Amino acid sequence: MRIVALDLGAKEISFCEVAQQRVVDRATVRSLDHLYGTLGPGRARARVAIEASREAWFVFDRLREWGHEVILVDTTRIKETGVGRHKRKTDRRDAEALAMALERGTLPKAHVLSVHRRKLRHQLSVRRALVETRAQYVTTIRGLARAAGHRLPSCDVEHFVARVNATPLDDATRALIAPLLVVLQPLEAQIGLVERALEHLCQSEPTVQRLATMNGVSLIVAAAFVSVIDDAARFRGAHQVEAYIGLVPSEKSTGGRQRLGAITKHGNGYLRALLVQTGWQILRRPSSEPLAAWGKAVRKRRGKAVAVVAVARRVAGILWAMWRRATVYEPSLVGLASARGLNAQAQTIEIQATAMKRAAKKLRRAAGATKTPKGALMA
User: Fold this and answer.
1) Do residues 140 and 72 both lie within one domain?
2) What span, in angstroms and rounded, lies between the C-alpha atoms of 182 and 260?
3) Same domain, yes or no, for 154 and 178?
């Protein structure tokens, strides 16, 4: 079988084919279609390596359609292949290094998202862009008003435009922020459309609905978790999931001494941010739930910053355990045990049915409103 690697650059694709650790063919093309004569249907079957990226999903599907075996490369371990060695990094060299590693059998493989989970992630990306744009406009308008001596009253985001219109402002300030208000108002309708599309996708995802039964976990957080993890069975334990998301401490241990630092922040940054926001909500909400009590105890000992990350990490582990066991969230079963303890618990049909009804109500509320709580604009 032929051994091929593609480096998917921003403007060009570098193609490299090797045999017995020697380059036998190279090419630089503008798009995948320009490789039809080399890799198209009817050509000799090849093993093709490509780095994991958004474009890689499309390339992966197309090459599979053409009859090739495609391997997605884990970009977090890309240096193991020799890419960027000796600070010599070009698209041509990267493609060659990938092809050589593929032939040697030392290529670190990445997980390929299922088609449905890709759609879920795409919709979440659109929603994230709209929500972050709305947040930026609200922050800018408040800053401009404050610079002119006006303090706009706090309110929920979806009521912001109406509240600004009802607030007495001088003519110069109102004229200054008018273009932003004009753009901000239709954003609410667009966010509503995207959230209804997300609701439709989540209706065919029982896992999302189960995870949303956990208090503090919104439908958006549950959907983001599912879209990133994709398959719970590919992780051996909760700690591996937490490390995959980048919520575990970095480590520099030498001479028999273990030194832990800040979290690694590897993996999907958006999911990590959503889980941290969930941690904040759990800590801020008055609750006697064991998880909240545990987080508040950590806050007393270690401070807010450490506590919120600890809660976020534990939420990730619990969500994974719920997914693996196809169970819903029940606070009394969490206790002060770890997510591994939750994984070993059994749940009754009555508990699951009640929790799923709560999740269904949460789903309907998400479809009927686009309300975003203050302080949780990204969630």
Assistant:
1) no
2) 49
3) yes
Other C-beta atoms lying within 10 Å of the C-beta of residue 46: 20
- Distant-in-sequence, close-in-space partners of 272: CB < 8 Å, separation ≥ 6: 245, 246, 247, 265, 312
Q: What is the CATH number of the domain that holds 46?
A: 3.30.420.40
Contact of 235 with 243, CB cutoff 8 Å: no
User: Would you place residue 288 in the very low, low, confident or very high pLDDT band (cuts 50, 70, 90)?
Assistant: confident
The mean pLDDT of 184-207, rounded to a whole number, is 91
Q: What is the pLDDT of residues 18-46, one digit of tens each?
A: 999 999 999 999 999 999 999 999 999 99
The label of the residue with tokens 């060659």 reads: 96
Task: Read off the tokens for 13.
Answer: 């694709």
**68-116 pLDDT, tens digit each:** 999 999 887 888 887 777 677 788 999 999 999 999 999 999 998 888 9
Tell me how far apart the alpha carbons of residues 215 and 238 are, in angstroms, rounded to a whole number: 19
Distance, in Å, from the CA atom of 348 to the CA atom of 35, rounded to the nearest integer, reads 56
| Separation of first and last alpha carbons in the chain | 47
Q: Average model confidence (pLDDT) for the chain?
A: 87
Q: Which residue reads 């990938």 in tokens?
A: 98
Residues 135 and 20 in one domain: no
Give the total number of structural domains in the chain. Answer: 3
Residue with tokens 């320009």: 34
Q: Which two tokens stand for residue 366?
A: 């998400």
Nearest residue to 113 (alpha-carbon basis) of 220, 208, 226: 226
